[in-house]
Inverse folding.
């Protein structure tokens, strides 16, 4: 049995009106130092967002969310943040803030395949289940 690969993750949330503290989960950021992975998957459900705030600026929110995978990847496309180490970028992305884009607390886990774990987390924490959509 292979040794487990440890990872940290946080859920990405859109909080259209931070003073109300209502949010929808829109993605997951996963970091594994051992596997040298810092990845994000973002899936914005505009209809769900509109239920929280019909006046939300969807285009601006999409632009901010699009920056997250760029920062994860690092390099010139991420600007000054792209020069930080993988761990520093993860900590910057998951730092607590009062803004329209926020993350949950950081959680940990172990797996054999971090990218599979990321997909599982997106399925479980972001996507609406078939049962929830039928209700």
């Amino acid at each position: 049995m292979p040794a487990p690969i440890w990872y940290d993750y946080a859920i990405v949330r859109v909080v259209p009106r931070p003073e109300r503290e209502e949010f929808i989960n829109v993605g997951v950021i996963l970091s594994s130092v051992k596997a040298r992975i810092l990845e994000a998957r973002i899936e914005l459900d505009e209809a769900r967002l509109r239920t929280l705030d019909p006046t939300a600026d969807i285009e601006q929110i999409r632009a901010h969310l699009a920056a997250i995978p760029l920062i994860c990847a690092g390099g010139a496309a991420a600007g000054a943040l792209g020069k930080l180490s993988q761990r520093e970028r993860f900590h910057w992305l998951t730092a607590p803030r009062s803004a329209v884009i926020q993350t949950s607390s950081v959680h940990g886990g172990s797996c054999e395949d971090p990218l599979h774990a990321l997909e599982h987390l997106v399925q479980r924490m972001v996507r609406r289940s078939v049962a929830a959509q039928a209700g």
Observations:
- The mean pLDDT is 93.
- Residues 26 and 44 are 5 Å apart (CA to CA).
- The helical segments are 46-52, 58-73, 86-94, 114-125, 130-134.
- The radius of gyration is 15 Å.
